[in-house]
Design brief:
Radius of gyration: 18 Å
Number of strands: 0
Helix content: 55-70%
Shape: globular
Distance between the termini: 56 Å
Order of helices and strands: HHHHHHH
Mean pLDDT: 85
Strand content: under 5%
Structural class: mainly alpha
Largest sheet: none
Number of helices: 7
Low-confidence stretches: 1-28
């Protein structure tokens, strides 16, 4: 049995490498249908269920509208954090790796939005500016606070994706786009929960007033989800 003894900085480097490897292997397979040109001919990425009850169609549209806005906001949160902490040798690579995953998420959500003929949220600019502000401000308050922000945001997003998977059970399973859509949502949920774990492993719960910060950020995320669902 091989035993590795690593300093904290080395452990962080291993974590970054593991995230990078993970993001390019198993969990990226479903979303690769939208990123790999060799798969661009598949009907699962060009069609959308139309002969469904209006309530089901509205659920699909509101879900993807929220997802797209959420991935936009996440991109700008990580950009804000990276602008402040990007030069930190321990934290910068962690933020960059999570940000790179969010960039892919947004790219895929933009394609899903077009495929399923979903109107983007009217709050696009609010999500962008609000996300950047949240990321930059929490990063300016310190590394632990930035990680606490990530923990709170990803907790809400993980729960949100779980709720969506339950709602998507109403979609016709025999439509070519539906199984892929569910797999992409599962992939993204797992990515977000991985970000949550990384934040906890990197001292998010040592942030001053951690419980209060988590409550405030989490509540803000839930309000944003509801607003984007409607508008």
């Amino acid at each position: 049995m091989l035993v590795l003894v690593c300093r904290p900085s080395s452990l962080r480097a291993v974590t970054v490498a593991a995230v990078r490897l993970h993001s390019t292997t198993a969990r990226s397979i479903p979303s690769s249908a939208y990123t790999d040109p060799a798969l661009s001919h598949q009907p699962s990425i060009h069609t959308t269920p139309v002969n469904v009850p209006q309530s089901v169609r509205e659920e699909l549209e509101s879900a993807l509208r929220v997802d797209q806005a959420g991935e936009l906001a996440a991109n700008w949160i990580y950009k804000g954090q990276h602008d402040v902490l990007g030069r930190d040798p321990a934290t910068g690579p962690l933020i960059q790796d999570m940000w790179d995953q969010e960039k892919k998420h947004l790219h895929v959500m933009n394609k899903l939005q077009t495929q399923h003929r979903v109107r983007p949220t009217f709050l696009w600019e609010v999500a962008r500016i609000g996300g950047y502000g949240l990321g930059a401000i929490t990063a300016l308050m310190g590394r632990e606070v930035a990680m606490a922000c990530t923990e709170a945001v990803e907790t809400v997003i993980g729960e949100h994706y779980d709720d969506q998977l339950k709602a998507f059970e109403q979609l016709p399973a025999d439509h070519p786009s539906v199984p892929l859509l569910k797999e992409v949502i599962r992939e993204f949920r797992d990515d977000e929960l991985e970000h949550l774990d990384i934040a906890v492993e990197n001292d998010s719960q040592k942030a001053p007033a951690h419980a209060l910060l988590s409550t405030v950020v989490g509540a803000g995320c839930k309000v944003a989800i509801e607003l984007c669902r409607r508008f």
